[in-house]
User: Fold this.
Amino acid sequence: MIPITDNHIHLDRRGKGIVAAKEFANAGGTHLILVSKPSWTLGVQVTEPDGFKPVFEETIGIAREINRSDIGVIVFTVLGVHPAEITRLTDQVGQKHAEELMIRGLETAERFVIENEAIAIKTGRPHYEVSDSIWDASGRIMAHGMELARDAGCAVQLHTETADAAVIADLAAIARKSGLPPEKVVKHYAPPMVKVFKREGVFPSVLAGKGAIETALSEGSRFMMETDYIDDPERPGAVLGPKTVPRRTKQLIERFGEEAEEAFWKVHKENPEQVYGIEIMV
Ligand SMILES: [Zn+2]
Assistant:
């Protein structure tokens, strides 16, 4: 049996929650990298330095519940601060304080990594147009997240603007400057530019939409797969569903045979093991 890992998924108790993990398992999935949701989607108002803690505890709680159940899926968590928090928090408390709160949030995430409750820190910069001043603050926050990951010896997952070759090179340069090897940087929502990512060192987590994985495979096996399923009760079906990664993997193995299967052992087991320092066993 081949392990099948979704490298970036969210679960929400007001959405499908644990039922989504069951659907993933029934489709053949074995491991989930569960990423914390933005604070506002959980109705959490961050106003104090410890404000992100309940957001992270919610993610850890869901992971624990699945790990202790008989669903048969192993969950690892990635905790951090969504880059779009800066816009919302700036409106509420001003930009300077927003930056501070987000940095404290990343430090809280790092503590959970050190306590083995999480395997990586999520950070990044806005994917939409922002003022120069917010862009600069976001850059400082992301670099700080990378420094924390360096200190904790863990990886980061990045949410950024759409990645092209120049963006990928820029992210690798920022990582090196922060003392974090680019190999510990996972670009979430990555296009299937496997060769460019390999050249720059950054690790792509390719969205498993139509055709993307075929393209990725044609360039190699140095990538991971994700749905970015957001489990939003108001927008069911707005994104790829929780069964997508196992289904796509099995379809492609059926179509391309042994060669694809070998590549998928890398994608679903060796790559996450190497990037996060975890063990993927089935
Ligand atoms: Zn996401």
Observations:
- The radius of gyration is 18 Å.
- Residues 53 and 108 are 7 Å apart (CA to CA).
- The chain has one domain: 5-276.
